[in-house]
Amino acid sequence: MSLDFPSVKLNLFTKLEYYLILKKLDKNFQNHLNNFVEIKKDNKKADSQPTWEIEKKILYWAYHGHRHLGTPLNKKKVTEEKIRKATKLNKDQQKGELRLVDYALQNLETKGYFKKITIDRKQYPDNPEIGKTGYVITPQGLAMGELIFELCFFAQDKDYNEKFAKTKILKYKKFIKTIYDLQLFSIRSFYLAGFFYLNLLILKEVGLIDDLKFWIKDQVLGYLGGSARLIIEVFIVIILLIPFLSFFLSVIFKNICWFLGLIKSILGRVKEKLNNPSPKL
Question: Closest Cα partner for 141 from 37, 256, 212, 57?
């Protein structure tokens, strides 16, 4: 009998890719929201309202609260009281978010985070929405939902409340965001260091490396004075260490978050036990 152990892979690059996409979508949403408000102030009809914040809430819930991932979602399902409360979707018919759920699901399909299907009796015999359109989350949608769940929390936002809907939105946890920014910075630094090293190799191959050394010694060191060599050496060491330091700092911070989450989970279970003691035999 053989045992199949789960494969272990480094998904750092994948998460950073989704993080960059998330930041870009957030920036685009803010631009669209500002543009929509400006049009509204001019008493002109806006072509469309931005729905990315609603999409984020659906992805957040789909990762954290959707127990049967194969079950299709639609507006009726998302607007159920239990899901609405979990996603903090505002139900105001005039200025709420629930009225835009259909558009949000369509946009999620366009982004590749949900797949549009027709609810079939054979595949979903107990579903009351037979023959209607539904949306099933994709692996890409789960990955984005996982990132949003890890990176964001619900909080009030005065600007969003005034411009769009009075409800809580998903905001970045600053500490977690710093971890991702450090990891992103370290990867970019590695790329820059590799590019710099490649240029040195090219200069060496074409016979210009000696000219570069002479120019540095004659021009740069001569201009900076006697302590210039030490200053440059320290500067180079710092440049080379920055990618490693930023990456290790991000790893340390992430482990601190994991440890604090573990303590919070243990304390929650202890509190639950104290509040609900087991009956005595």
Answer: 57
